[in-house]
Amino acid sequence: MRSKLPPSFTNPITILGLSISAISFIVIVFLATLEYFAKDSNPYMGILAFIIVPSVLMGGVFVAAFGVWREHRLRRIGKPIERHLPVVDLNNPMHRTGLAVVAVGALSLILLSSFGSFKAYEAMETDAFCGKSCHTPMEPEYTAYQNSPHAKVGCVQCHIGSGAGWFVRSKLSGSYQLYSVAFNKFPRPIRGPIHNLRPAQETCERCHWPSQFYSEKLMSQTYFSSVGEKNIPSKLDLLIRIGGGNKEAGPTSGIHWHMNISNKVTYVATDERRQVIPWVRTENKNGDVHTYRSKEVPFTAADSAKGEARRMDCIDCHNRPAHQYRPPQRMVNHLMALGWIDPELPSAKDLSVHVLEEPYSTSKIAADSIRTAVTEYYRDNFPALAKTKAAQIERMVTELQGLYAKNYFPAMHASWKVNPDNIGHMYYLGCFRCHDGKHVDERGKVLTKECNACHAIVSQEEVGKTTRVSMAGVQYQHPVDVGNDWKETNCSECHNPPDKKAAEKGEKKVATRGHQ
């Protein structure tokens, strides 16, 4: 039987390339069909159906084209090779058997390729794939994610989202990350992807609707201060003024004024993590514009032109919605309030914070050292209590080991110290990045540092003092007498001093190691 194809197409290389392309095309159709009928679209389907398998298909085309080029070249230099397609005679038992073997083999290859592609798609859509494929660098983020309020939201839903554009961008970014892991070039700790995250309007707002944010939320917190060997509790009830974008639902002022759909807040940060913000511009629905500049951080018009002017959205405050590393003071306060760490154990607050903050070289050494430090402290200083409260001490050890495992990762140098959370202002700059009382506009108006703009303290209770209650808000009193320093100094300067000098400054202001 004479071939209907040009002679240059009947060489083995071209036939191999065309076979690869044909199988790839069938796999693409199969995956595209799965995607079309899937209940929920998954971004990782694109990497198979529209990037990997098409790349294989194009590779087959190039192989086929190379075979054609090679055949032409051989003929041009005078080395023609006579080739013929196999002749299949179905009346010949051997030909029938051979055709059946080829057909079954080809069908099996197509089915196995399709099934393998589908299983690869299933694997890549899991959170475990994101968190465990590169175990060492991603262990801190994956552990924090598993203990976050968004643990049931898939990684790809926030880091990629739907649509091909951001999917491709994320894969291009991931290519460099793959190289970094393969050649041990990744930074320690891993830097948060704040510069290449998809806009919050396309991810966060799929579940959180700005127009339906509400007005106030009551939050109660219990703190423990160490005075001598005693753990002195104090309690605060704060009315958090959340605010929203719908006047029918309540006041639109408050915290979410910043991203109210009627207002526009733009800022420029001079550092990678957006902690130093010397320039802020606000514009309300009436067109009133205010430009605030820091009195402490030099920032000229030329700097403004060079800097990245970013419109504020959810992620500027909620910058760690699924990867939170919690400060030891806050964690220990919480466990002591629950009674999981017994507040009656002498120096429990101080000791807990101290053993968590020690610079351990590995997680295993940390777990062993925490046990040794706690048990020896009570055995050496309170031998009778070490026997009568052995169960409480053991519970304290277990809880502290758990806190450390969830929030400290020595191999990656990752902890709360290097991962600021912009919600609040106790342990990080947070609100005070802009609301520090030092940002002034051209008319002399100061960007407010008034606490009641975002929350009101409706109740403050301290041991040995009268409990003060007022729905209009009571004046905050620092549990340790530091004069007016708490009004003039950012909270984080004492509660999370950035260096030794600041730490010494904080120790002078706070006479006890109160660890609020």
Account of the 3D structure:
With 516 residues, this protein is an alpha+beta fold. It folds into 4 domains: 7-124, no CATH class; 130-197, no CATH class; 216-321 and 421-509, no CATH class; 328-418, no CATH class. 43% of the residues lie in helices and 11% in strands. Strands 6-3-4-5-7 form a 5-stranded antiparallel sheet, with no helix packed on it. Helix 9 packs antiparallel against helix 10 (348-357) and helix 10 runs antiparallel to helix 11 (363-381).
Please work out how many helical segments DSSP would assign.
16
Class from secondary-structure proportions: alpha+beta
List segments where confidence is low: pLDDT < 50 over at least 5 consecutive residues: 500-515
End-to-end C-alpha gap:
90 Å
Approximately how much beta-strand content do the residues carry?
Answer: 5-15%
Task: Write the H/E string, N to C.
Answer: HHHHHHHEEEEEHEHHHHHEEEHHH
* Order of strands, widest sheet: 6-3-4-5-7
Mean pLDDT: 80
Q: How many E-type strands?
A: 9
Biggest sheet descriptor = 5 strands, antiparallel
Shape assignment: elongated
Helix fraction by DSSP (H/I, runs of at least 4): 40-55%
Count of individual domains: 4
Give the C-alpha Rg.
32 Å
